[in-house]
Q: What sequence folds into this?
């Protein structure tokens, strides 16, 4: 069997496995932030969380498959490890970047929700007072 094909198979298995692991971790832990932003609306939080996970899978698995192709021929075990390390390193950097983007978006959503809750008065105003000197 050609070592290039072996590299492709190993690359796909590891990259997709890492993508699934990161997505599950983000989904599990990010749900808490989403529920907080949506003021405890559990059904909506689950729906938004699921949509974010699907988008994460589409972007990352799309990148993994686009980055699969290699222009160099792999002839030795050393070449196999070097090619895999470069490809997996780039995939890990992209996954890390996507993770940071997700955390940033969730944090921004949470901050906005907290600000909106602080601006709402605890009770409705019951009247108004005429300005002084009128």
A:
């Amino acid at each position: 069997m050609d070592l290039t094909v072996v590299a492709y198979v190993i690359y796909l298995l590891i990259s997709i496995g890492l993508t699934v692991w990161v997505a599950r971790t983000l989904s599990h832990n990010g749900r808490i932030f989403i529920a907080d932003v949506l003021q405890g609306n559990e059904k909506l939080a689950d729906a938004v969380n699921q949509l974010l996970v699907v988008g994460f899978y589409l972007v990352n698995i799309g990148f993994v498959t686009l980055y699969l192709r290699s222009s160099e021929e792999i002839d030795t075990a050393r070449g196999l490890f070097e090619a895999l390390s470069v490809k997996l390193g780039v995939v890990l950097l992209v996954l890390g970047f996507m993770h940071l983007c997700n955390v940033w978006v969730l944090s921004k959503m949470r901050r906005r929700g907290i600000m909106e809750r602080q601006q709402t008065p605890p009770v409705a105003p019951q009247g108004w007072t005429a300005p002084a000197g009128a």
User: Anything to note?
Assistant: The chain has a mean pLDDT of 84. The two ends are 93 Å apart (CA to CA). The chain is about 75% helix and 0% strand. The longest helix spans residues 77-119.
